[in-house]
């Protein structure tokens, strides 16, 4: 089933565009500030530039369509790199629980969760925003609160999260199911067995896919 996304607004925030979709279901990834070392960032940038050049060399494509393909390609590269658990990976034990509790705190109030997972250096969430609540507002709430609490717990100061986040909007049932499967299986793929910081909501998923 294709989803009626309603009104779509694309905003440029810092370096990445973010899609604000009325009645949309979002897939969002955000990560620790040190989760992508300089060498990894450069490799991702170079691979994305090469991919864009390949698309342009084929000709006939609209610029907007090409950029959207590159955006998806970049997301895959970033997620693949994050799964290598680079950086400090402080999101284990109590720090991970702080992030998990923050994600669940306003569920059914500001948003409706379909699935989420907290990994050692990043987090994923699939959710829809309720009326009057924006994607940017939800992300700011999660990142601001958890940054303060995790830093306090670890006795540290400074930036915890990368400023940007990666988001995409589900367009149909197949994409939603595939994305949720990726989120809930992420810990196992990273060999984090019996990892408690992951959850899905089967009844909500069934209702969403009709």
Descriptive overview:
The chain has two domains: 8-35 and 89-209, Transposase IS200-like (Alpha-Beta Plaits, 2-Layer Sandwich); 37-86. It has a five-stranded antiparallel sheet, sandwiched between helices. Strands 1-2 form a two-stranded antiparallel ribbon. The chain contains six helices and seven strands. It is globular and about 50 Å long. It is α+β, with helices and mostly antiparallel strands. It has helices spanning 38-58, 63-82, 94-105, 135-154, 173-189, 202-209, and strands spanning 8-13, 16-21, 25-31, 111-118, 122-129, 166-169, 198-200. Helix 3 packs antiparallel against helix 4.
Question: How are the SSEs ordered, and which strands pair?
Answer:
Blueprint: E1 8-13, E2 16-21, E3 25-31, H1 38-58, H2 63-82, H3 94-105, E4 111-118, E5 122-129, H4 135-154, E6 166-169, H5 173-189, E7 198-200, H6 202-209
Antiparallel strand pairs: 1-2, 3-5, 3-6, 4-5, 4-7
Helix pairs in contact: 1-2, 3-4
Features:
Alpha-Beta Plaits, 7 strands, 210 residues, two-stranded antiparallel ribbon, alpha+beta, globular, 2 domains
Task: Give the N-terminus to C-terminus distance in angstroms.
Answer: 8 Å
Q: Order of SSEs, N→C?
A: EEEHHHEEHEHEH
Beta fraction of the residues?
A: 15-25%
Measured on Cα atoms, how large is the radius of gyration? Answer: 17 Å
Helical stretch tally: 6
The best one-word shape is globular
Strand order, sheet with most strands = 6-3-5-4-7
Major sheet attributes:
5 strands, antiparallel
CATH topology of the largest domain: Alpha-Beta Plaits
Count of all domains: 2
CATH superfamily of the largest domain: Transposase IS200-like
CATH class of the largest domain: Alpha Beta
User: Strand pairing plus helix content: what structural class?
Assistant: alpha+beta
Compute the average pLDDT: 90
The counted number of beta strands is: 7
CATH architecture of the largest domain: 2-Layer Sandwich
Fraction of helical residues:
40-55%
């Amino acid at each position: 089933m294709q989803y009626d996304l309603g009104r779509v607004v694309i905003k440029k925030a810092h370096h990445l565009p973010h899609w604000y979709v009325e009645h949309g279901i979002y897939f969002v990834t955000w990560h620790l500030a040190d989760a992508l070392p300089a060498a990894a960032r450069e490799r991702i940038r170079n691979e994305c530039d090469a991919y864009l050049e390949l698309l342009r060399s084929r000709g006939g494509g609209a610029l907007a369509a090409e950029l959207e393909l590159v955006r998806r390609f970049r997301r895959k590269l970033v997620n693949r790199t994050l799964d290598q658990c680079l950086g400090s990976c402080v999101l284990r034990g109590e720090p991970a629980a702080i992030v998990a509790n923050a994600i669940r705190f306003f569920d059914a109030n500001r948003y409706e969760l379909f699935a989420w997972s907290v990994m050692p250096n990043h987090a994923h969430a699939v959710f829809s925003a309720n009326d009057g609540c924006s994607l940017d507002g939800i992300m700011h709430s999660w990142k601001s609160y958890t940054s303060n609490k995790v830093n306090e717990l670890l006795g540290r100061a400074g930036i915890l999260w990368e400023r940007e986040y990666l988001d995409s909007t589900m367009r149909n049932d197949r994409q939603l199911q595939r994305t949720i499967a990726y989120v809930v299986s992420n810990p196992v793929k990273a060999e984090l067995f019996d990892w408690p910081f992951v959850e899905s909501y089967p009844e909500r998923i069934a209702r969403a896919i009709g």
